[in-house]
Design goal:
The complex is a heterodimer of chains A (314) and B (299).
Chain A lengths: L5 H11 L12 H30 L2 E2 L7 E2 L3 H7 L2 H31 L7 H13 L2 H12 L4 H10 L13 H26 L3 H9 L4 H29 L3 H6 L11 H10 L4 H29 L5
Antiparallel strand pairs in A: 1-2
Chain B lengths: L1 H10 L3 H4 L13 H26 L21 H8 L3 H32 L5 H10 L5 H15 L5 H5 L6 H11 L4 H9 L4 H12 L1 H17 L2 H6 L8 H12 L3 H21 L1 H11 L5
Helix pairs in contact in B: 3-15, 4-15, 5-9, 5-12, 10-11, 12-16, 14-15
Classes of the chains: A mainly alpha (314), B mainly alpha (299).
């Protein structure tokens, strides 16, 4: 093994800094890398890379669980185009995303700003709001089922306070989706709250002090100083929240089972039903790839649009 | 009030900068206690669903619904928890999930640490290319791989087995990516010193890098454990037998078979949440730091 002298290494480290791994090749490192990479690489090939391509290939087949697959070309995709359930699931998913993502970001940003250095026990509050993000989604959904059901906590509280009961949230086509969104926001915004809180802690107080001396009030300070400095975090959080919101499944599956009617059937739920209840594996793969392409497209758009509003100049 | 705010602010500053800030007079701000009280109320409302879950878990069946709502029944029925554990059998599901989550976390930590070492410390041909391939798959949603994965498991005869629950998600690129980021911040000088003392790569990883990167391992361990614990779609697809059913799946079964026994369902939900909540409370420092550093977490 080539042992480099400490002096060279010191220079090397300074040049590389924290930006990346040391560059160039070193004799013997290729051989040394093999035992380190092999365990992970085998699993990665078998359980990530191969299934990704297999799924794309399967989407071109009529692929039953029993019996042999037959090639359809783009048949599954053209069936999707005229499939009304698919269209409903797509629209429902879009409605969910459009409602969920902005509410999530605004709530987490607002609370992160509220839990400022003025608040005592900041870490405690942050952890409180983070708790439902780590409890099982099924558990959260079951609890919301109890709250939202007729005669449940919300209904009975409203009856005793206002003499008017709550709507039957989960049994009404117009309330089911808002109920799913509300439950999802409650359970999910804790992650972004922590991301934004950490970013706000990193804003130098001298900047807000300076703005305050220049006569900016709290609101102005937030929008003109803090928010631009936070824009990389907001961008990052929005990208990830969007990706995960397109994958909405568990909460709708447990709370409403996709109903009433098909008012809360989402793309992933339709994928699950097609693949594992009707065992049309090729068709389910096609849904997965439509979902993937939508996610890639939206993420790509966000990366293009970030130049207009994200400031990295720190 | 004014000095209060000023001291709270300077406390948040690094010590060298603290002296530079002159305590200005913030005008027209709500006093802190108003803000603090309101926030506490919001936090309590936020926690209400979980509090209601625990209160309901302690009631008798006939006391679950009442108008106006009553927080407590006539007695606190702790027996509901043991009844819920014996039902289905939920206790078995707990053990299953504990096994799956623990083994999955260990495998993830081991393989991620090895790969991350190679990607951050060794210089070999195609290293960056392979790493970008790993990174590229971070964007692939689980749903895309789930269908072929089901077929693979079927061919291997792994339906209803623990390895089917563990292995498919123990090699994701996320762990490698997270640990690599931390390993890169470990100074090269430490490694070179160890090399001069005659350490090979294994020793360097074990005795030099791993101790320094312990917080990173903690972060990855917590996220991985929680992901395994909460996973729903994949267990729903690959298991249909009590011997391998996990907690979220069991809760869903419970809802389907006995959804009217709300007090038992809430007891089961409480039990299902306890381990992850405990983990978060105990390791909150690491978690907050990990989320701040990676911005990713378990989504």
């Amino acid at each position: 093994m080539a042992v480099t002298t400490p002096i060279v290494v010191a220079g090397d480290t300074a040049a590389v800094g924290r930006r990346g791994a040391p560059q160039g090749y070193r004799k013997g490192d290729g051989k040394s890398a093999i035992p380190f990479l092999t365990p992970g690489a085998i699993g990665f090939l078998a359980f990530t890379l191969f299934p990704v391509f297999a799924s794309l290939a399967m989407s071109l087949f009529d692929w039953p669980v029993l019996g042999s697959p037959s090639f359809l070309g783009l048949g599954n995709y053209s069936e999707l185009m005229s499939d009304t359930t698919f269209r409903t699931a797509l629209i429902n998913t879009l409605i969910f995303v459009v409602l969920y993502v902005p509410i999530n970001i605004v709530v987490s940003l607002g609370l992160a700003a509220w839990i400022s250095p003025r608040i005592k026990g900041r870490r405690f509050y942050r952890v409180v709001f983070f708790i439902p993000a780590v409890t099982p989604m099924v558990g959260n959904a079951v609890v919301f089922g109890l709250l939202l059901t007729p005669n449940g906590l919300i209904d009975s509280t409203m009856k005793s306070l206002f003499d008017v009961g709550a709507p039957n949230f989960l049994g009404s086509t117009s309330w089911a989706m808002p109920a799913v969104v509300m439950m999802s926001v409650w359970q999910g915004f804790g992650y972004n709250l922590l991301v934004f809180s950490a970013a706000m802690d990193a804003v130098p107080p001298s900047l807000t002090e300076a703005a305050s001396i220049d006569g900016a009030g709290t609101v102005r300070q937030f929008f003109s100083v803090v928010l631009p400095l936070l824009s990389p975090s907001i961008f990052f959080a929005t990208v990830l929240t969007l990706i995960s919101s397109f994958q909405v499944f568990t909460q709708a599956y447990v709370l409403t089972g996709g109903g009433p009617g098909s008012s809360t059937t989402t793309l992933v739920m339709y994928l699950y039903q097609s693949g594992f209840q009707f065992f049309r594996l090729g068709f389910a793969s096609a849904i997965a790839w439509v979902l993937f392409v939508i996610i890639m497209f939206i993420t790509g758009l966000q990366f293009l649009a970030q130049k207009r509003w994200v400031h990295y100049d720190q | 009030m004014t000095s209060d705010v000023a001291s709270a602010r300077s406390a948040a500053l690094p010590p060298t900068a603290a002296g530079a800030v002159t305590p200005t007079t913030p005008r027209r701000r709500r006093p802190r206690w108003v803000s603090q009280t309101l926030l506490t109320i919001v936090a309590l409302i936020f926690l209400a669903p979980l509090v209601w879950m625990i209160l309901t878990a302690l009631k008798a069946g006939g006391e679950v619904f009442s108008t106006p709502p009553r927080p407590f029944g006539d007695a606190l029925l702790w027996g509901n928890f043991s009844e819920a554990l014996a039902y289905l059998p939920f206790g078995r599901f707990l053990l299953n999930t504990l096994l799956v989550a623990t083994l999955g976390t260990l495998i993830t930590l081991a393989t991620s640490a090895l790969s991350a070492y190679a990607f951050s410390r060794l210089r070999f041909r195609f290293r960056d290319g392979i790493f970008f391939l790993y990174l590229g798959t971070l964007m692939v949603p689980q749903e895309v791989v789930v269908v072929p994965m089901f077929l693979i498991m079927q061919r291997l005869g792994w339906v209803n087995t623990f390895q089917a629950l563990i292995l498919p998600w123990a090699f994701t690129a996320f762990g490698t990516f997270l640990l690599r980021q931390f390993f890169l911040t470990v100074p090269m000088e430490l490694e070179e010193a160890a090399k001069i003392d005659g350490c090979g790569h294994w020793r360097i990883l074990r005795s030099v890098i791993a101790p320094v990167a312990a917080p990173a391992f903690a972060v990855l361990a917590v996220f991985t454990f929680i992901n395994y614990w909460n996973s729903f779609l994949w267990p729903l697809i690959i298991t249909n037998d009590v011997s391998t059913t996990t907690v979220p799946l069991g809760l869903n079964l419970f809802l389907g078979q006995n959804g009217q026994e709300w007090q038992l369902l809430m007891a089961a939900a409480t039990i299902s949440m306890a381990p992850t909540v405990l983990l978060v409370l105990v390791l909150q420092k690491y978690l907050v730091r990990g989320i701040a550093l990676s911005g990713l977490g378990g989504r």
